[in-house]
Amino acid sequence: MQRKKIVVALGHRALGNTLPEQQTAAKRTAKSLADLVEAGADIAITHSNAPQVGMIHTAMNEFQKAHTDYTVAPMSVCSAMSQGYIGYDIQNALREELLRRGIYKPVATVLTQVTVDPYDEAFHQPSKIIGRILNREEADLEEAKGNYVTPVEGGYRRIVAAPKPVDIIELDTIRLMLDAGQIVIAGGGGGIPVLEQNEALKGASAVIEKDLLSGLLAEKLHADELLILTSVEHVSLAYESGNPTPLGRLTVTEAEQYMEQGQFEAGTMLPKIEASVSFLKKGGKRAVITSIDKAREGYLGRTGTIIE
After folding, report:
1. Which of 77, 130, 216, 297 is the most buried (most CB within 10 A)?
2. What's the CA gap between 230 and 295, in Å, rounded?
3. Which residues form a coiled coil (predicted)?
4. What's 110's DSSP letter?
5. Cα 281 to chain center, whole Å?
6. Mean pLDDT of 105-128
7. Is residue 39 packed enough to be buried (19+ CB in 10 Å), middle (13-18) or exposed (0-12)?
8. Exposed, middle or buried, 48 (CB in 10 Å: 0-12/13-18/19+)?
9. Reduced to 3 states, what is the DSSP secondary structure of residue 147?
10. Poorest-confidence range of 22-31, 225-234, 235-244, 282-291?
11. Are strands 155-160 and 148-152 parallel, antiparallel or unpaired?
12. Are strands 183-186 and 192-197 parallel, antiparallel or unpaired?
């Protein structure tokens, strides 16, 4: 049986919020990932990091307040930290699950940097909320440093840009590992956003939408399939209504029409559809969006929203 090369994007449900939740969730998610390997897939794994990177950012800022001789950790460093410890839990849980099934495949995490365009309009319209609630004095201090804040219930919170991914710095390493039959975890949280400055890479104060990065990675790897695992078995029209309509098989044209109609919520399902459409228009064969516990059935074309 010819094996397929697929990029698997894990959503928030695959990881939980806290350290104990993450370890438990990673073990559960590992079973679904191992099912894919048994079904004939060579997989590159991406994952969400929203709660984790926020926790790290808050912790590092609070530490700096208590120890003024330390500097605040920039967002790029927080992103790198989240990639490391999330990858650690996923790779160990998946290695354990595969060995239980008599499968030996190396599993490793690649800290992944992703270039963004410094002129991306997102830098002028930050939208991603991070960190804890701030009081007015703390918010003023953030703004004095050139950061953005937004009013929320109980105070203010910092917001950062969400630029589109342009290129993947460690792509050759990821491709080499995948072509060697290894399982690679990469592009966690959308990657560490960096700006190219001649030979140097400078971390950007931003976060990248992980679904868009997943689509870009699938495109760059010439993957057969993009499999986006989330909390629902199907994408639905009128999801917030009392009578949502689940979508089965779609063409790219149909998916684009639904996007134009505003059928998908920004920040949740819309980037998943955008990533799928972009991947398919650039040579991908199939994109599937389904729930984590239906990963194998989705990969086999038996369930989920399938875009071709």
Report:
1. 216
2. 10
3. none
4. E
5. 21
6. 93
7. middle
8. buried
9. coil
10. 235-244
11. antiparallel
12. unpaired
